[in-house]
Amino acid sequence: MRRFVLGLFATIGILAVLAVVAVGVAAWHIAASRPALPRTIILTADLGGGLIEGSQSALSELVGGRKSTVRGFLDALERGAEDPRVKGIYAHIDGDTLGLAKTQEVRDAVAAFRGKGKFAIAFSESFGEFGVGTRPYYLATAFDEKRIAYVDAALREVQACLAAGIEVRSYLYWSLLDNFEWSLGYAPTFGMVAVDRQTFARRPKPSAHWFGQVARARAVPAPR
Length: 224
Description:
The protein is mostly helical.
């Protein structure tokens, strides 16, 4: 009887070891079969369809398609900011699809992402010009390249006016510094020069350097 019990425990032990080895081999094979990520990664995000809170039900996914979540977007940006392979993000903004709270969260996340030295470029067919909200514009201010595109387009229209014989005395961009907005306080950053609200330190944004080059050359760069 004793030999039977010992043999039973020995068999169980051997089977347990074999099971652990099998699981390890399977895990190794799964990890090895995963495609390797490229050395350079550029994130993309479509914010035109909005971002949902929490998880999406199977029925809503079937009816309306799969949508990105706020948490998923924020986590992806946070991880990408710390990953040296991630160089930047292209984001599509289309109309006023996010509420003010979500807009603020997304905007802060993009600003933190850019603070790690990553680029962030936004593009849009429309910012909801016929609506009453300014949230799409507010979100776009986190993407400084959008500011450059905006000023570039405005200066080209000034050139068109001059070519048509219209007298244009000057062009003024509002504003030089991140200032105080009556409806949103210090949250929007429309300026070409960032202002740290704690230390009041000034930091020229890429758009300021671009605008300086235009002023020194007295010409708008040729379209790329």
